[in-house]
Amino acid sequence: MTQLTADFYDYEALLGDEERKILLGAREFLAAEVRPLVTEYWDRGEFPHELIAKFREAGLTALSYEGYGEHHGAVSNLLSGMLAMEMSRTDASVATFFGVHNGLAMYSIYSGGSQEQRDRWLPAMAAMDKIGAFAMTEPLGGSDVAGGMRTTARREGDEWVLDGAKRWIGNATFADYVVVWARDVEDDQVKGFVVEKGAPGFAAEKIEGKTGLRIVENAEITLTGVRVPEANRLQGIESFRDVAEILRATRGGVAWQALGVMVGAYEIALAYTREREQFGRPIAGFQLVQDKLVRSLGNITASWGMLVQLARLQDAGVFQDEHSSLAKAFVTSRMREVVAWSREIVGGNGIVLGYDVARFFADAEAIYSFEGTYEMNTLIVGKAITGESAFV
Predict the structure, then answer these.
(1) Cα–Cα distance measured from residue 72 to residue 56, given in angstroms and rounded to the nearest whole number
(2) What does the alpha-carbon distance between residue 247 and residue 258 come to, in Å, rounded to a whole number?
(3) Could you give the residue ranges of the DSSP H alpha helices within the chain?
(4) pLDDT score of 170 more than 60
(5) Concatenated DSSP letters for 95-152?
(6) In the CATH hierarchy, which fold is given to the domain comprising 132-232?
(7) What is the residue-averaged pLDDT of the chain?
């Protein structure tokens, strides 16, 4: 398959030959196996579980984790980002499923677990024989979860007892391993626990009636006296500061997803302008339509450039919270503009699911909010550039 029309500055050329081959293989796989399913499942609000085996067969699992997965060696952050973009260009829900499992859940274990824990859980997760979830957000706590986490952990001998509730937890209805974050009642520090499927006292109820990311099976979790062995406590996590290291890395992935949503919506709008005729000719030749397309392409190109440099900072090991926060805030804001312009170009048909742009328009709102709201990310960047904290 050829270069994307939205890649106006040929950012893909920055990849080496082997990584570009992986990206193009993913593009072909997503077009052939995923794209034909997403509209139906989005409409039904269900996750296509048959995709899990197909992801495994395509060799797209655990590419970021050296020693685990198909390639047994970590790929660059640039390729990881472009793969997230590619998935989201096809469907943001599928990208979110993958980001929760391969990103938040696996990275929590990879970065916060002991070597024994990594060897115990990651091989099966890398093969997608076991699926992961990440449970941090709570019914009464989102942006304030760092200091206001209500879920508690109490140690009793060689076990921990977890009590509380979590909300908006992707994959939780079917996950085999759920990384649950809870506040230790003894030292008041946040710690991480891997709760395995079937644990007594653990319940996950699917959230219905969503207007975006409908394929993602978000759940409300209740934990009632859930007993977890000390061996399932992530040994490298001692406070929320350690958790923040995980969020720093995964927040950049959400910005790549937002880029993918922009690209997907733009491609649909561009194709529509060539086919749709008004006043006897394609609307692609109308000045105001071209203006929306060019502004969209400008947002895409600027966002892509920012994310390329973010990936370089990650690969060099020098990126900070403010780097990923600026990317998340900026790119998701530009995404909102692009999906709105794309919907306008498609006109009344833009609200019909069969024309696809409606799906991107709706999904964009969820991506704009999760992994740190726009406002919270601006405060992180604001503190970095002024030296003054504006957090309440």
Answers:
(1) 14
(2) 16
(3) 17-29, 35-44, 50-58, 77-90, 92-98, 106-112, 115-126, 145-148, 240-275, 287-316, 321-346, 357-369, 374-386
(4) yes
(5) HHHHIIIIIIIHHHHHHHS-HHHHHHHHHHHHTTSS-EEEE--BTTBSTTHHHH---E
(6) Butyryl-CoA Dehydrogenase, subunit A; domain 2 (2.40.110)
(7) 91
Domain ranges of the chain: 11-126, 132-232, 240-386
- Residues in Cβ contact with 348 at an 8 Å cutoff, skipping those fewer than 6 apart: none
CA distance to 109, 114, 189, 243, 315, per residue, from 236 (Å): 9, 7, 13, 10, 22
Residue appearing with tokens 């024309």: 355
May I ask the CATH class of domain 240-386?
A: mainly alpha
- Reading the block at residue 127, the tokens are 């093969």
Q: How confident is the model at residue 253 (pLDDT cuts 50, 70, 90)?
A: confident
Superfamily of segment(s) 11-126: Acyl-CoA dehydrogenase/oxidase, N-terminal domain (1.10.540.10)
pLDDT tens for 34-60 read 999 999 999 999 999 999 988 888 877
| Tens-digit pLDDT profile for residues 206-233 | 999 999 999 999 999 999 999 999 999 9
Residue 333: which of 303, 360, 355 has the closest Cα? 303
